[in-house]
Amino acid sequence: MSHPYSPSDLILPDFTPNLRSTSEVHAWNGIATFLVMFIIWRISGRSSRKLSKTDRWLMIWWAVSGLIHIIHEGYWFFSPEFYKDKSGNYFAEVWKEYSKGDSRYASRHVAVLAIEGIAVIFVGPASLLAMYAIAKGKSYSYILQFALSLVQFYGSSLYFITAFLEGNKFACTRYFYYSYFIAQGGTWLLFPALIMIRCWKRICAACLLLDHKTKVY
């Protein structure tokens, strides 16, 4: 059966169209994300440590980020033939939908496979560790967040650059190009960049304070 992806000559044997509508897929995504955000916000508000609102939002970011890497992207990474699914599996439906904005997920493009493999195996678990580090005020919190954000920013940069170098031909319509490829993909550039700036300032301030104390003593 023919598929809706670009390029049209992409070969996907036994492709099965989405069994859920676009709005339904987005609705379930939204509900799951909201529940995670709500739970983390409530838990962080009851922490024995006095957390700033920024730290609480960062805990939400790392929780959502980590779960997306481990669960959503983990499903894709270990399910190379998700596009054949006929059961209406939620995760298969998500990736059939997202592939309209970037068909490299359906074709298992080697660049995307490498980027997502690192995200699933390393970045996902480390993101949950970053959330824990913020909650407990661990000394490695800012270094870990900076390192993770740098990896996310670098991976996302490669994600966009490799698409552009190959002609930027992987979205089936302009709508999916801007709403999925640009907007959703760009999230993993914007937030990591902001977090890196914040962590850089905090680490530099801590180093200056340490130098000052060393000179005093």
TrEMBL record:
Bilayer topology annotation: Multi-pass membrane protein
Protein name according to UniProt: EXPERA domain-containing protein
Family the entry assigns: Belongs to the EBP family.
Keyword Protease in annotation: no
PANTHER family according to UniProt: 3-BETA-HYDROXYSTEROID-DELTA(8),DELTA(7)-ISOMERASE, STEROL ISOMERASE
GO MF assignments: C-8 sterol isomerase activity; cholestenol delta-isomerase activity; steroid Delta-isomerase activity
Residue ranges annotated for the EXPERA domain, each copy included: 54-196
Location within or outside the cell: Membrane
CC terms in the record's Gene Ontology section: endoplasmic reticulum; membrane
Main location: membrane
Keywords, sorted A to Z: Isomerase, Lipid biosynthesis, Lipid metabolism, Membrane, Steroid biosynthesis, Steroid metabolism, Sterol biosynthesis, Sterol metabolism, Transmembrane, Transmembrane helix
Pfam families noted in UniProt: EBP (PF05241)
Sequence intervals crossing the membrane: 25-45, 57-78, 110-135, 142-165, 177-197
InterPro entries in the cross-refs: EBP, EXPERA
Organism of this sequence: Citrus unshiu
Protein's GO biological process: sterol biosynthetic process
